[in-house]
Amino acid sequence: MAYEDIFNSDAIELIVRFGDHTRENFDKVKNQYSFEHIKNLIDNKECTCYFAKQTDSEHKIVIPLNDLGGQFEIIATWHISNTYEIKVNKQKKTKYKNKIELPEKQYSIEQSCFIRFIGIDERYNDYRALEDLEQLKKRVDNLEIAPKTLIENQRDIWTKYIEAQELLIKKLQEPFLCAGQYQLSEIKNAKGDIARFKFKVDLVADKNNEYRVFEEELKKNLDVDETFNVDGTTFLTMDEIFRGLDLIIQKRFSETFERERKIGCILKIRPFSLVQKIQSNITQAKIRKEDERRCLRVSDLSGNLSLIAPVLAQYGFKLSDIEVDFHITNVENLYHSPLNQKYSITFGKRFQKKDEEKELLFPEPINENTFRITKQITPELDLETDKLLFFNSLSRIYGKDNIEISQSYIYKPVNEEVKFFESDFTNEYWTNIKRELYLSDFDVTIRESDKSLYFEFIDRDDLVEKFEILNGLNKFDTVKSPLDDDFRFKVKTNLIAKKTAKQIFIEKIEKLRGVEFVYNQAEKDSKRSDYIFIGKLSANESTINQLVFNIPYFYPDEKKLAKKFLELINKKTEIKAVQANLRGDEAKTKWLREAMDKLKEENQQSNKPNSKPVNPKIRNFIFDSSKAEPAHKFDFTPIEETEEYKTFSKHEILKLNDSQRKSVLRALYSNDLCLLQGPPGTGKTTVIAELIWQHIRQSQTTRLLLTSETNLAVDNALEKLMNTKNATPELARYISLIKPIRFGKAAKFEEEGKKYSIERIQKWIDEEYVKEVEYENEQLGLEGGADDMEEEAASENPNFNAIQQWMIRIADRADSTNPKYENVLKDWVIELSQPAKETKHYFKNKYFKYVNVIGSTCSSTGSPAFSRDYQSTFNPNYTKEAFKKVNEILFLIDKKPNSWKISSLIDELGLEVDNFTKNNFKILKLALNNYLSIRFDTVIMDEASKATPPDLLLPLCFGKKSIVIGDHRQLPPLLNEKDFKEVLLDLGDAKAKQLAEEIDREFVETSQFKRLILNPKVSHTIKSTFNIQYRMHPHINDVIKQFYLDDECGGLLCGLDKEQVDSPDLKNPQSRYHGFFHDGFINDKTHTIWVNVDAPEIKDGTSRVNETEVEVVKTVLTYLKHSQGFDEYMKFWDGIRDEEKRKQEKEVGIISFYGKQVSKLRNVRITAKQLDIPLRLNTVDKFQGMERNIIIVSTVRSNKMDKGNNRIENNEDIGFAKAPERLNVALSRARRLLIIVGNKDFFYKFTDKDGNPLYKNAIDEIENNGRIIDYKTLTQYSKK
Length: 1280
Known about the structure:
Blueprint: E1 3-4, E2 12-18, H1 20-28, H2 35-42, E3 46-53, E4 58-65, E5 70-78, E6 84-86, E7 95-97, E8 108-119, H3 127-141, H4 147-172, E9 176-188, E10 194-203, H5 212-222, E11 233-236, H6 238-252, E12 257-259, E13 263-270, H7 274-281, E14 286-289, E15 296-299, H8 309-314, E16 317-328, H9 339-342, E17 345-347, E18 360-362, E19 370-376, H10 383-398, E20 403-413, H11 427-438, E21 444-447, E22 452-457, H12 460-472, E23 477-478, E24 489-495, H13 501-511, E25 516-520, E26 531-537, E27 546-552, H14 556-570, E28 577-580, H15 583-597, H16 618-621, H17 643-648, H18 658-669, E29 673-677, H19 684-698, E30 704-708, H20 711-722, E31 740-742, H21 751-754, H22 758-765, H23 802-812, H24 822-833, H25 837-849, E32 853-857, H26 864-874, H27 880-895, H28 901-909, H29 922-932, E33 936-941, H30 949-956, E34 959-966, H31 980-986, H32 990-998, H33 1001-1004, H34 1008-1013, E35 1023-1025, E36 1028-1029, H35 1034-1040, E37 1053-1054, E38 1088-1092, E39 1097-1100, E40 1103-1105, H36 1107-1121, H37 1126-1132, H38 1139-1146, E41 1148-1152, H39 1155-1161, ...
Parallel strand pairs: 2-6, 2-8, 17-18, 29-34, 29-35, 30-32, 30-33, 31-32, 33-34, 36-37, 38-46, 38-47, 39-44, 41-42, 41-43, 43-46
Antiparallel strand pairs: 1-3, 3-4, 3-8, 4-5, 5-6, 5-7, 9-10, 9-28, 10-27, 11-24, 12-24, 13-22, 13-23, 14-15, 15-20, 16-19, 16-20, 21-22, 25-26, 25-28, 26-27, 39-40, 44-45
Keywords: ATP-binding, Helicase, Hydrolase, Nucleotide-binding
Domain DNA2/NAM7 helicase helicase: 655-868, 932-975
Protein name: ATP-dependent RecD-like DNA helicase
């Protein structure tokens, strides 16, 4: 054995800590020997040990056990006590291996060790031994990790990554509990037809425990008895905010809560009453309505009555009575005055008294000290005499100096039609008020449903100023003034220490934006689910209290899909819960796991179809590109000097530049792998099309798989290839050699791709055809987002398909110049152009026999439906029955190897299998494997920089050769807008927490394509870069070229013709002219602008927003609209027939690094609509792969942060904007004009972790060739 019972002076003590969990986890794996057995063999023994570096924090210790014929492999981390600690769990596999396989010498250290196992918390005081072990540990730390180990580590990380994705999907699919209340409303299009339904369902309210201690403190100390809802919102008076809430936060909760700086005012409004309207026209008197009577009282008249009479008459009133009040100032209460007895005063009626007694009768006082006489207006009225008589009577008793006289005039309506109050505002009113408020200097939200206005303010002075502005409009009456002491305002507080329930909810809703939701109508105790499609979630309209869904109902298939749910609603069914349908995501993660399983050692000898990769070397080169075989043809001779390069242009079907030509050649002659970098606008689609042509030119029977993350990229490549207008004239006729087919759901394809779909081809042959094969990663619903539902139909023309076009090309080449065959050829041409069903079948079979290109998205290649489409295309005899027969043969081989039926089934399948016997079915299994396996000679994968290794494996496992195209200078895998670890921790799940600790976030968020192409050991013969772009104006190119200086291409060049790039002829494909001119903003030579905004950013949950930038984007659009040449520029694109292309040319792209900022920027749509400017709005991440003529970037981040409560703090973090890949994508989307809105000085100073300036070069280029403008100077169209 490799151990002894003596202590050797060269041996060091290897102290290894273990616990009960070590033993339990080790034995759980079912090793050949138990942990205790192995420990007893080597504990306190001297053994030869081999140390290797497993990861930066883990070492692998291999101890050979010769007597057992195997080895003990310990995965250990360094314990705080300067000893090793064994790690045993599902991932850290300390194990017994039943064969001896020592680490490679150059990556390991051999050391004789005296092994001691001690408890996890046991003390060990031999400091000399600990010091020796620490020195050994440092030597191991300095080792290079073995390539094989690196590959194993990557496999391990990506397996965990898939597991994490499964947890996230499971969490997102948790049901939303419903309160039982819901609404269904119709949404009609311009024609009056129902285009969709809107379904709203109330959610069960969550209890808000986070604010309870805060509420108790407010009540206890300040007598503020208010509750906060789940998002931290409550309603308080002004005094309760500034002298209550703010003081409590400052004193007790400054580290836990913060109040948002802006306070909300909900102003309830109503139409002016008739009195208010009259009063607004009469300033010399007070007007009020009498409570008990339908009349008006005019008092405190300061002028002649004749001046106001015409106004009252205009509103339908005439003078009816005059009332004169006599106020007695020296009597507190007329009824209890001693003067009553003295003068025998009676009020309003006679007392019961003796005849000889005197009595003085006065009118009943209207209050404790006022008499009133009322005189009706008649021709005989002598008011002054009546007033004097009554005054004299009162003077004798109370004294004339103690009597004050006032006079009121009573006006009554001429008829009953006069309305004192309007019940509601008219539609015309709301339109007018919206226009009025649009011109105000602050944002006011109008809520017609509850007749209110909402605006925000900072302090009382700001409130008074804004309320006076609204009041000054004189358009409405306020139900209650916000200046009243008891008026309650909307106040929002945020939890600083952790996210609120609402923040987590909002993040979840954002992830589910546009996702289909379903209702499970199965019985409570049923084991099987019965889901009914509801609709797609409208994230913009959904709140923490209510979910809103759009149910499309325009096309027949939409109506069919919605029918069940609408019937359910009509039955008044109680909706107890709804949940997201992430079946496609579940299916994809399952396929990703299956793809990773293909790499396992135990599967490499399997004969099961598609259980291992076609090229076994992909198991290594997908993680380490140096393991791929070089293209030896270019090993020692520069590619441009080879004969292949010199003659290549003769065989190009498309016109290539030098870098594209070199890339195609390297890919063509590679054996395992070729990596092609395609920066923005460098013609990746052209290269892909040429690659397909060149492979087919070499062999028409080759099989190619073209795949990408999106359908758009696949369809564009096919269209580029198959469009004869793009082809070299001499080679255009040979395009017929290329026979593509599209796999997947045709509804998801672009129109360019639909003509290659199996579905359209089958419908061309048989109108009744219904596709049976469904792609599991496609959702139940239909294409289109939930927040912007499409209502127009795209015309479907089955005749526009690949086979019919192939037949037409054949017909076009028919030579009818020979009179002998003229009539026959004419009939032939007609038959091909208008084929009968039999002819269609014939050509379809011929086409499918020679199909050599399959187009599909990456994710779809994992679907069983992809396998079925493959078999039906390449195996004409393949049917469901054939598949069953194959499975039956495999069953018989395993269970009944002597069965005569095996040979019979082989004959029925048409398989030619020789030399197989009952005792050796290896040849037969291989034949069956080949029959069902998916195999391509070459797989071309586009958009690979956003793919993880499992994503790459899905399609690449099927290919003998892999051509991978991407750009590691653009965005890596789009995991989340926030820390991947944070996403997992939000789940509150123990397993998720463990994965969060074990998954290296930086590793999984780094593009695998980047690791592959930048591998210093990868052969230069299997990688290449395109260095000429044709998208951007040279000035925009200069802004982003910095990102490519270190690449093989040495920088990015602009391939547009310098003489034509500024041509005013917009039809010219080389022109990037826009023709705009506006003094102080832009001219026709300006293609890059930085609008400097130094306003503070605001934290919104885990995201950031900058409201000033939103306003500046509105201003920028306004300046563009008012620029000379802008309208002419927009009108030019109206000449494009293709609606989608016309839309793309006219749209202004607005992008931002933050999703929350994009939500804020949706307000810009109102301005854009008024300006008649179409927009395309999204995050930078989601805009990758797209381009627009004009792009506006909102950067958000600032050197100042608004913390609320009037606190502005310094900030140095630029967040997502620190990623050069994200910046590159943001700046490279524009073709003609790039406008950046942000804090120039803040970004200018930023450097990356290596001290390199990230934005400085871009800003310098803009300053040299474009314009730097301070937003404060853009005031020409400011609201007055």
